[in-house]
Structures are given as structure tokens and as C-alpha cells.
């Protein structure tokens, strides 16, 4: 690992604590409001995110990446946000300049990264876009919004929804990361572009069922594939954001 990155302090929670508070799951665990039929979907989302983030943040601490990158006693918290527009999802395909070699050529529908202490006070710079959200504003949501701003340029207003969590114990890299997933719906006439063009080989908006077809077999990043597969299993159409 780069020596500078190794000294970066990131938010973690003890693995044992987390799985004492939450039932064990593998892959993408969708938020309850996706299957809610009570007519109180927004209230369900508010409550679920408030409770989930409260449990996580009550045990959160900060370690350097060098300390926790291979320590399976901790889960590094990764806000991960996907953007939907006009029934399609925004994606990028990693290029040769991507920071992690294992991701070269892979397609991702989400933007994510570690949480730092500074995210507690992060403020959206409001570059011609207004954010709305029903979930509680806290450091995790702040981190998701910051990642969105760092990796994309958005023209237009959008709404953010808490979507669930991701856990994969299939390899050493995924085993030490926990994804907190959000969906952002970009409203009509909105536009989205990637910022770091030198790091990608392609981008655009596409339908989730196309990104998961046989033509793209093996090209989806694991977290992206988990989300798309789960939404297909719930028989959701492209307007779920």
C-alpha cells in the first residue's frame, strides 16, 4: 500500500460487535422499505436507516488503513452510492489508470470510499444541484454525498434513498469492508458525468438488465453485481430509486 494511504485514518467497527447487532448476511441486504406494503415506505426507510446508523456509529472508531487493511477483526465502513436516471443506472468501466489493478476493466454502478473524521462536517458545495433525502443526515450519508461529488459532476436535482448494506466474506479484500448503500434518483432533465476520465475506459447510463446480461458476464464489480442481482430477484423494475 502507498505509504500516504497507509497513514489515512478511516472509520471502522469491530466485526464481532456488528454481527451481534445485525443478523449475518452475505452479499447485498436490501433495505426493508423495498418490500414494504404498508403505504408508509418513507417512514420505514427513516426508521431503518436511523437505527442501522445509530448501531454502527455507537461502536465506530478510527484506525489507519495500514492497521486495519488486513485485520479481519474490523469492518471498514464504505458509503456506496448508485445514481439512477430515466429508468437507467449510471456506470463507469475502470481503465488502466484506476488506482486498484484488480478493478481494471470492471464495470461499477456505484461510487464509494472510506469515511474520514472530516466527513462529519462535510457540506455539499451545491454546484447547481439540490439534494433531498428522507434519511437522517449524518457522517455516513455525508461520506456518500462527498464520494458522489468527487467522482461525478451532476447538473440537476436529486433525491437520496437508503438502500441497504453489503458484506462479502469471499476474499481478503472484501472481508474487511462493509458497504452502506444509497440510491440517488436524478430528476428529469438532469445530467451526470464522471470527473476522472483518465481513470476510466467508458461510462454512461444503461438498464440494469443489460449490464447483467451474458455479454457483460464477468465484467461487473462484485458489489455492483450483488446489487443488480438482488434487485432482479425482487422483481423490481428500473424505477426503484
Task: Give short descriptive properties of this protein.
two-stranded antiparallel ribbon; 11-stranded mixed β-sheet; 8 helices; alpha+beta; Nucleoside Triphosphate Pyrophosphohydrolase; single chain; 241 residues
Describe the structure.
The chain is α+β, with helices and mostly antiparallel strands and 241 residues long. The chain has one domain (7-230): Nucleoside Triphosphate Pyrophosphohydrolase, CATH 3.90.79. It has eight helices and 13 strands. Strand 4 (74-85) and strand 5 form a beta hairpin. It is globular and about 45 Å long. The model has no long low-confidence stretch (mean pLDDT 88).
Question: What's the CATH C level?
Answer: Alpha Beta
Largest sheet: 11 strands, mixed
Quaternary structure of the protein: single chain
Mean pLDDT: 88
Beta-strand portion reads: 25-35%
CATH superfamily: Nucleoside Triphosphate Pyrophosphohydrolase
Q: Give the CA-CA distance, first to last residue.
A: 36 Å
Overall geometry comes to globular
> Which fold name is given in CATH as the topology?
Nucleoside Triphosphate Pyrophosphohydrolase
Q: Please tally the β strands and state the result.
A: 13
Low-confidence stretches: none
Order of helices and strands: HEHEHEHEEEEEHEEHEEEHH
TL;DR?
The chain has 241 residues and is of the alpha+beta class.
Amino acid at each position: 500500500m502507498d505509504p500516504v494511504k497507509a497513514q489515512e485514518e478511516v472509520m471502522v467497527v469491530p466485526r464481532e460487535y456488528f454481527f451481534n447487532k445485525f443478523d449475518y448476511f452475505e452479499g447485498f441486504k436490501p433495505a426493508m422499505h423495498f418490500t414494504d406494503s404498508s403505504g408508509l415506505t418513507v417512514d420505514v426507510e427513516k426508521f431503518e436507516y436511523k437505527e442501522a446508523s445509530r448501531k454502527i456509529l455507537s461502536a465506530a472508531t478510527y484506525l489507519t488503513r495500514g492497521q486495519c487493511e488486513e485485520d479481519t477483526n474490523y469492518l471498514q465502513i464504505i458509503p456506496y452510492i448508485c445514481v439512477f436516471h430515466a429508468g437507467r443506472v449510471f456506470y463507469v468501466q475502470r481503465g488502466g489508470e484506476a488506482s486498484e489493478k484488480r478493478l481494471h476493466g470492471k464495470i461499477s454502478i456505484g461510487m464509494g470510499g472510506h469515511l474520514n473524521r472530516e466527513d462529519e462536517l462535510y457540506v455539499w458545495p451545491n454546484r447547481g444541484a439540490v439534494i433531498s433525502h428522507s434519511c437522517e443526515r449524518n457522517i455516513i450519508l455525508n461520506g456518500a454525498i462527498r464520494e458522489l461529488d468527487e467522482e461525478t459532476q451532476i447538473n440537476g436535482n436529486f433525491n437520496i434513498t437508503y438502500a441497504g448494506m453489503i458484506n462479502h466474506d469471499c476474499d481478503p479484500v472484501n472481508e474487511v469492508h462493509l458497504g452502506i448503500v444509497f440510491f440517488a434518483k436524478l430528476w428529469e432533465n438532469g445530467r451526470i458525468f464522471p470527473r476522472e476520465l483518465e481513470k476510466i475506459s467508458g461510462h454512461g447510463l444503461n438498464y440494469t438488465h443489460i449490464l447483467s446480461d451474458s455479454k457483460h458476464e464477468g465484467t461487473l464489480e462484485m458489489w455492483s453485481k450483488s446489487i443488480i442481482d438482488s434487485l432482479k430477484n425482487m422483481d423490481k423494475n428500473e424505477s426503484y430509486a
